[in-house]
Amino acid sequence: MDADTYIQRLKVSNSLRESTLLEMVKALHLPAGSSGLDAGCGVGLQCLQLTREIGPAGHITGLDISAEMLDYGREMVKKAGLSERISFREGDIGNLPFDDSTFDWVWSVDCVGYGPWDTMKLLGELVRVLKPGGIVSIAAWSSEKLLPGYPRLEARLGATAAGMAPFVQGKNPELHFYRGLGWFRQLGLKNIRAQAFVGSVHAPLDDDVRQALEELIEMRWPGVASELSPEDIAKFQRLCLPDSPDFILNLPDYYAFFTYTMFWAVKP
């Protein structure tokens, strides 16, 4: 997927996730006026939420490996009048370009612990640049129920390679995102916590939420035809393609929910 397409998807999906991510930010009780790192920030959408929580005296650094995303983020932050409070840095989370004990807190969503990378190395880097007494948090999309009334089809979709991604077949169970408590313990962190945060939507859907759900359904189960029975393929196409008259989002009583899971702890 090219950067422009991915950026567009991030923007569209934000209306679906924004309130849930804000609940997660608030649960951290970040100190007013503090300095934080958003590791794997993408275009910086969460930076905007984080800066509201820490107030005008705080500062956030967004780091990502994609120059295109960071360029978009800088322009977005500039338009919001927040360039003095949010800055961006291109870099690799596995080798953060910051000194030890630089930040009061570190945050990473849908990145550390969620992809195919060396989880402990990445998490160790987040802890390295965190000041003693600071908070480190990682969070990721963890589940969804998008097809009300069709639990068997949704269960079968969830069992496909795409449906399980990024939890690929053959992955060491200890590297599954839900094992985050163990990672934090290995790093010697304290006050370790875990919590699921739930977002939900229901009809009538406004245009932004509907578009976000369309993008989510398209992204969640790409290329599943080879893993489904002919009957399930037909049902999937009938319910999950926007041009179908039976598209699931057209239900007058449509309801769906999803969860994010966040682990957070304090550096001794």
CATH superfamily: Vaccinia Virus protein VP39
Q: What is the CA-atom radius of gyration, in angstroms?
A: 19 Å
CATH fold label: Rossmann fold
Order of SSEs, N→C?
HEHEHEEHEHHHEHHE
Oligomer: single chain
Q: How many DSSP helices?
A: 9
How many β-strand runs? 7
Strand content: 15-25%
Strand order of the biggest β-sheet? 3-2-1-4-5-7-6
- CATH architectural category: 3-Layer(aba) Sandwich
Compute the average pLDDT.
94
Low-confidence stretches: none
Please give the domain count. 1
Description:
There is one protein chain. By secondary structure, the protein is of the alpha/beta class. The protein has a single domain, classed as Vaccinia Virus protein VP39 (Rossmann fold), CATH 3.40.50.150. Helix content is 38%, strand content 24%. Strands 3-2-1-4-5-7-6 form a 7-stranded mixed β-sheet. The chain is globular, with a radius of gyration of 19 Å. The model has no long low-confidence stretch (mean pLDDT 94).
Q: Concise description?
A:
38% of the residues lie in helices and 24% in strands.
Which secondary structure elements does this structure contain, and how are they paired or packed?
Blueprint: H1 3-27, E1 35-39, H2 45-54, E2 59-64, H3 67-79, E3 86-90, E4 103-109, H4 119-128, E5 130-145, H5 151-158, H6 161-164, H7 180-186, E6 190-202, H8 207-220, H9 230-240, E7 255-266
Parallel strand pairs: 1-2, 1-4, 2-3, 4-5
Antiparallel strand pairs: 5-7, 6-7
